[in-house]
Amino acid sequence: MRLPSPSLAVAAAAVIAASAAVVTLAAPSLGGDIPAEQAQPAPAFKDIDTWINSPPLDMAALRGKVVLIDFWTYTCINCLNHLPYVKEWDAKYRDKGLVTVGVHTPEFAFEKSTRNVKDAIERLQIRHAVAQDNSYGTWKAFRNQYWPAVYLIDKQGRIVYSHFGEGSYGATEKKIQALLAEPAPAPVPKAGS
How far, in whole angstroms, is CA 126 from its chain's centroid? Predict the structure, then answer.
């Protein structure tokens, strides 16, 4: 067996390191806290086919509440693994001002069936609001790319935290608690007042 020359080995290592740097720089953010100066207003719910467990919700009407948006689909194993945490946060913090909205965005055609979604919601004992987003309108408005994906919206209506995939449950819950502890926004004066 012949070993490569030291200069060839160094060159190969440099190419591998450069490739890893490019992949790392091109990889999407894994979420986390969004600095206040970068926080964007949460987009409106868009092109929702059906609301389940709730009348239609309006993002503007939710100002003053902390909103947890959970993009999911009922056949995604990662979504199913993550769902108990979402349900627990909803149960634990609903009376403290948290509004949880599961945005069901289908990956497969059969997941577009409202009957199938309702059956899954019943089977999974989901009590929070679920917006059926068959046309990906809300998914696109959030520029989302992942199942599951969590976005936290502060009382001002800004996206201030996100997490994609499973995990970071402790950090997400701490962020929920911190957002709930923030003061409510001052009322906006009505025109002519």
Answer: 17
Q: Cα separations (Å) of 106 from 40, 69, 117? A: 26, 16, 9
Which 8-state DSSP code applies to residue 178?
H
In angstroms, how far is the first alpha carbon of the chain from the final one? 87
Which of 62, 85, 71 minimizes the C-alpha distance to 154?
62
Instruction: State the chain's mean pLDDT as an integer.
Output: 86
Q: What b-and-e string marks burial along 34-58, b requiring 16 or more CB atoms within 10 Å of the CB? A: beeeebeebbebbebeeebeeeebe
| Cis-peptide, bond into residue 148, ω within 30° of zero | yes
CA distance to 24, 124, 133, 162, per residue, from 74 (Å): 31, 9, 13, 20
Is 101:121 a contact under the CB 8 Å cutoff?
A: no
Dihedral angle at the C-alpha atoms of 125, 76, 150, 177, nearest 10 degrees? 40
Q: pLDDT digit string (tens) for 45-97?
A: 999 999 999 999 999 999 999 999 999 999 999 999 999 999 999 999 999 99
